[in-house]
Design a protein that fits this description.
The chain has 129 residues and is mainly β. The protein is built from one helix and eleven strands, in the order βββαββββββββ. Strands 2, 4, 5, 6, 9, 10 and 11 form a seven-stranded mixed β-sheet that branches. A four-stranded antiparallel β-sheet has the order 1-3-8-7. The relative contact order is 0.31. The mean pLDDT is 96.
Length: 129
């Protein structure tokens, strides 16, 4: 599975931003994105990679990291092979490289990196005060 993120950039405190991640490759063509759980992680300089949000296949289950609950929303459009991360009320602490990830089985949401086999290259989100 190949993943390509987009939507990052420089924003100000309090702003909103929506990230997108498009999945492609033979596995997606043959097995459909609906058969994969999807997630967003982030990594700030000098910090470990952090779980942001995850969504099961078909979107029945979502989970979020404590630091983004109530502000971020993950969603998916399997017809477009795309997963989104809507980020609201951004703060400087949200500054990081955001990574999209895909894994299986699709009926659960893993909150650790080991639960995902495919990763994108990341998109930088910088929140200025």
């Amino acid at each position: 599975v190949q993943l390509v993120e987009s939507g990052g950039g420089l924003v100000q405190t309090g702003d909103s931003r929506k990230l997108s991640c498009i999945a492609s490759g033979r596995a997606i063509t043959n097995y459909r994105m609906a058969n994969y759980r999807m997630a967003w992680f982030r990594q700030a300089p000098g910090k470990e990679r952090e779980f942001v949000g995850g969504i099961s296949g078909a979107g029945a289950v979502t989970r979020y990291g404590d630091s983004v609950k109530g502000r971020f929303t993950i969603s998916r459009d399997d017809a477009k092979n795309t997963v989104y991360l809507q980020m609201n009320a951004l703060t400087v602490d949200d500054t990081a490289v955001y990574y999209c990830a895909a894994g299986d089985p699709p009926w659960t949401v893993a909150t650790v990196s080991e639960g995902y086999a495919s990763w994108g290259q990341g998109t930088q989100v910088t929140v200025s005060s």
